[in-house]
Design goal:
Distance between the termini: 34 Å
Number of domains: 1
CATH class: Alpha Beta
Helix content: 10-25%
Strand content: 15-25%
Shape: globular
Structural class: alpha/beta
CATH superfamily: Metallo-dependent phosphatases
Radius of gyration: 16 Å
CATH architecture: 4-Layer Sandwich
CATH topology: Purple Acid Phosphatase, chain A, domain 2
């Protein structure tokens, strides 16, 4: 069975303005967390790293922050997959359209152009996902995902809102429990925005 590291919601570049003096410390903490994820993946010799949305806090990151992210990702010794989330959505202003990402040889970003499935034959594993193309949408991010016919293992990535009556928004990439139950995947790398 492949060894996977699943991370999400790192929110690099978040201003943390509400924390005033502590803001800088929190920004540095997010960067350190990201570095720790990369180091852990390499130390544990995982087969694949998946990021299920919101590596970045917005699509308006400074060039220095984009360079930091891509330089860290370039240290991965294994394939990596990024699913754009609600803060770093894959739209015309997406940070993932900047040239810095093209230097990453072993990291794939889910985009409309990349399709909904990535197959890794050496792992007999497929990763499925649909990038968030805006910060709001009423379409489920897992609906329509189907297993790859040649893969022994199928993983779905999703960034949205688990639908709980009175607790979730219908325009926050809704994920219904029934859709999760119907999903024919071995693992769902899920990040939800439901507030309890």
């Amino acid at each position: 069975m492949p060894k996977i590291l699943h991370a999400a919601d790192i929110h690099l570049g978040a201003p943390f303005k509400q924390f005033t003096v502590k803001g800088k410390e929190l920004r540095e903490g997010a960067k350190q967390t990201f570095q720790n994820i990369i180091n852990l993946a390499n130390e544990e010799n995982v087969d694949l790293v998946v990021f299920a949305g919101d590596i970045a806090d917005s699509n308006r990151l400074s060039p220095a922050m984009v360079n930091f992210i891509t330089s860290q990702l370039s240290k991965l010794k294994m394939p990596g997959v990024i699913l754009p989330g609600t803060h770093d959505s894959y739209n015309k202003e997406s940070i993932y359209r900047r040239f810095e990402w093209s230097r990453l040889e072993n990291v794939v970003i889910f985009s409309e152009e990349a399709g909904q499935a990535l197959f890794y034959p050496q792992l007999s594993l497929a990763v499925h996902g649909k990038p968030n193309t805006s910060n709001r949408d009423s379409v489920s991010p897992i609906k329509g995902l189907t297993p790859h016919p040649e893969a022994r293992w199928n993983i779905a990535l999703a960034h949205g809102s688990l639908q709980i009556t009175g607790k979730s928004a219908e325009d926050d990439y809704p994920i219904e429990f029934k859709d999760i139950e119907a999903l024919e995947m071995d693992y769902l790398a899920l990040v939800t925005g439901t507030v309890f």
